[in-house]
Amino acid sequence: MIRDAKGGLFSSVIDWYIGRKVRSAFRGVWVRGELPVAASGLIAYLNHSSFWDGFLVHQLGKLAGWDTYALMEEQNLARYRFHTRIGAFSVRRGDPRSAVETLRYAKTVLERPNACVTIFPQGELRQGPLGPLSRGIEVLARSSRRQAVPIALRYAFFEHEHPDVLVEVGAPHAPGPMTTFTEQLESVTQRVHAARSTEGFTLKIAGRRSVQERWDTVRSLPPTTQEGAPAARG
Asked: Which of 75, 79, 91, 126 is the most buried (most CB within 10 A)?
């Protein structure tokens, strides 16, 4: 397997780069619900619908104070190995021996201070309904005896030119059967897709302002005289 390689200057550079990319690509990242602490180790599991998902998980971890790690398919991680610098480690899908090795490694990672291991149990990018989830999330939660938190991501265009990221955070729960994980992830996914605006969400990461917002700012400025000083009102 490919293990994570967090730490050092290169990790700091990638960390800065990801934050910059997210702020430049989106109008904002909005969160509804509380991101839990990970003092005793935490597992976060999410829907997987976009290339951006891994970068967003990284940013959510920074907001929550997590030491964030992510499970990634080995073939993809080998191609984009820089992800190891932000906590990615691998598993070979369909290989039972690889799954056991990765499970053991994930359990050691969860013993690190404030560690959060993030998993996309769909196993692939998928639009629309979640589809079947991998049992790896259930096995890891049961064997590590760590709580798990369901999180849903949505990339939405509302009245602005740049998309917003909506993040729905469910309540952390104890390990349980696979049906628990499926029901919890379906619940937060349905809630985030039912949203028709950012109302009810809290802006956590401000990104690019739209032309409309910049124009509204200009319109709100006081008029000026020919010399450039604010004109007297009254």
From this structure: 91
Predicted TM-score (pTM) of the model is 0.88
**Tokens 């005896």 -> residue:** 145
Between CA 71 and CA 133 the distance in angstroms is 14
- Only one residue has tokens 């000026």, namely 224
Strands 202-206 and 28-32: antiparallel
Distance of CA 178 to the CA centre of its chain: 22
In the numeric block, which tokens belong to residue 33?
């619900």
Distance CA 125, CA 135 (A): 17
Residue 77 in contact with residue 88, Cβ under 8 Å?
A: yes
Domains of the chain by start residue, with CATH:
8-219 (3.40.1130)
Q: What is the pLDDT of residues 151-205, one digit of tens each?
A: 999 999 988 889 999 999 999 999 999 999 999 999 999 999 999 999 999 999 9
B/e letters for 144-180, b = 16+ CB within 10 Å, e = fewer, are bebbbbbbbbbebeeebebbbbbbbbbebeebeeeeb
Q: Which region, left, alpha or beta, applies to residue 2 given φ > 0 means left and ψ of -120 to 50 means alpha?
A: beta
